[in-house]
Amino acid sequence: MRKKRIVTAAILGAVALAFFLGDVVVRDVGPTGGSADPGKEPQREIVDTVRKGETVSTIFEKHHLDLGELFRMRQASASIHPLRDISVGRPYTITLDPDNNVLSLAYHIDDDEILRVVRSEPGYLADKVPIEYERRIGTLGGVVRSNLVSSLPEGGQSELLAIQLSDIFSWDVDFNTDFRKGDTFRILVEERWLDGAFRNYGDILAAELSVDGNTYRAYRFDAGNRSDYFDDKGKSLRKAFLKAPLSYRRISSGFTKRRMHPILKIARPHFGVDYAAPAGTPVSTVGDGTVIFAGYKGPNGNLVIVRHPNGYTTSYGHLARIAKGIRRGAEVRQGDVIGTVGATGLATGPHLDYRIRRHGTFLNPLTVNFPRGGAVPPNRMAAFRDVAEEFARSLAAITPILYAEAEPPGDSVK
């Protein structure tokens, strides 16, 4: 057992090293188990990352390794993680004996797991190993400049953090249209560290958004069946409908009883919201339901209509295309992609015409208030209050700051 743990630690450490080294590393690691034989050659490790155009076969050929061993390793890992599924930039470590035979391979599947294939005569054994991060609680607080992403610290992790926030508050806040300059955010988030270096963010534990004069809070809590986000009173942030059916858009026309039609040039009601967005932008259903129409319908172009519980229907018009499987009678879940933004029918450019009805009456999608989902059960409420109060104190201690904007390429501070 101790020997297996030593091998695993060596593999994980070597894979972690590959994150910080751009070039291939070949190094001697010595015999496993702590008792070195002075007359025996040490084992070697190849530490590298997958390059563009590489497959496991070309990696083996590059390092002059036996393709017969690769065949046996593929067999061993087929039901765990197929070795054909490797991605550019992901690190790997190959451990070799003095005769250049492969003792083990460790491939970093993602930020959470490593595929480990270890020699076990007469072949190999494969499994997945979770990455043992050091977990810390981090804080972020900022002032919105123009949008949330540009108001977070620089780096790709900030975009992922913004997506997490969007997912948490998507029932209450439209992250593309609701924010105003000077709005603030406070975030309590799990940080994952490896070998003393920050690697990525984990789950957001708590967050507070001050948006256009309104304050929204979310606390992560396990209510008994799974972890979810709840407000100060223990009510779920989830609602029957999302705030909007797509991202990356602006409102080009709102809900009104009198609008000059851009093509017909006559005044007529517009009982929906037009979201201008690039052609091809995915459109998602805002709630669970059943498709009652999917096809071409005159001035609406490609149109999808979904019937939801409690008398609600939503419609999505001018789609470039309707997603595969979206047809009359199809069941859809909140967030399912039903089509892409287009300009079919009477449209001057790519946009989505989004409408909501209840019992046949049109509702303004920007102002309608949908009921929330469930709540923390009574037998867990005391524990929730303890967690929420602690998180609330931590959020209150965060001071929002204005993060510096990234400089344009080529500019420098004089």
Proportion in β-strands: 35-45%
Mean pLDDT: 82
Q: What's the count of strands?
A: 23
Instruction: Estimate the global geometry from the Cα principal axes.
Output: globular
Rg estimate, integer Å = 27 Å
- Estimate nothing, just give the exact number of structural domains: 3
Supply the CATH architecture of the largest domain: Roll
Question: Stretches where pLDDT falls below 50 for ≥5 residues?
Answer: 1-12, 14-21, 32-36, 249-268, 406-414
Stated plainly, the CATH topology of the largest domain is called: Nuclear Transport Factor 2, Chain: A
**Order of secondary-structure elements:** HEEHHEEEEEHHEEEEEEEEEEEEEEEEH
Number of helices: 6
Structural class: alpha+beta
Helix content: 10-25%
CATH classification, class level of the largest domain: Alpha Beta
Please explain how this structure is put together.
The strands form four sheets. Strands 12, 15, 16, 17, 18, 19, 20, 21, 22 and 23 form a ten-stranded antiparallel beta sheet that branches. The chain contains six helices and 23 strands. It is an alpha+beta fold and 414 residues long.
Topology:
Blueprint: H1 2-20, E1 25-28, E2 44-49, H2 56-62, H3 67-77, E3 91-96, E4 102-108, E5 113-120, E6 123-130, E7 134-143, H4 148-151, H5 156-169, E8 184-194, E9 197-211, E10 214-222, E11 227-230, E12 250-253, E13 256-260, E14 267-270, E15 273-276, E16 282-284, E17 289-296, E18 302-307, E19 312-322, E20 331-332, E21 337-341, E22 351-358, E23 361-363, H6 378-396
Antiparallel strand pairs: 1-2, 2-3, 3-4, 4-5, 5-6, 7-8, 8-9, 9-10, 10-11, 12-15, 13-14, 15-22, 16-21, 17-18, 17-20, 18-19, 19-21, 19-22, 22-23
